[in-house]
Hints:
Elements: H1 2-15, E1 46-47, H2 59-66, E2 108-112, E3 118-122, H3 126-136, E4 143-149, E5 154-159, E6 170-177, E7 180-188, E8 191-192, H4 195-209
Antiparallel strand pairs: 1-8, 2-3, 3-7, 4-5, 5-6, 6-7, 7-8
Amino acid sequence: xxxxxxLLGLALALAGCGEHGLFRDRGYDYLRAETGKPLxxxxxxxxxxxxxxxxxxxxxxxxxxxxxEKPEVxxxxxxxxxxxxxxxxxxxxxxxxxxxxxxxxxxxxxxADGNGYPVLMLGVAFDRAWQAVGDALPRLDGVKVDDLDRGxxxxxxxxxxxxxxxxxxxxxxxxxxxxxxxxALQVDENAMAPRELAAVLMGRLRDGLTR
Length: 211
């Protein structure tokens, strides 16, 4: 008798674990989520845009997936790994310490990223790019290096005596990409420096890296 009462109590307890029971199912809470207001950045600051890594299928494509049909979804190819070419005799890889020397002109490109922001692309290994940039910066007119962080790939610099709105040095950031090492000027990890200032520094740095 006691066993039956215990089983009955267990069944009632489990029955209360549904949508309005002891443990509410939160699997569909996202359907009631509200869209927040977009972030507002100070004037003159260009935020680093967030990019979706994978496409989200439209409603019709999701229906086709559920029905077992082959949807017309464009799957982006995986990023290509950069394999550094063997350096020429006049462009041998420099060690991580000491002077890196000038980079070949064909390994330094002044270009723009996907948002039209001026950047440098360096077709060399990160160690050599880091050393070459560090060697070139002190020789550039109007550029002063305040500090550096090798682990983050950042040189903290002033350009023509200018610092950012928070009176902090600009961050010259070296990033790995599929096409080489990208060099960009940032306010911090979340915002790019003004385009005009970045264009000035990228032009000077390009010249300094190749001479």
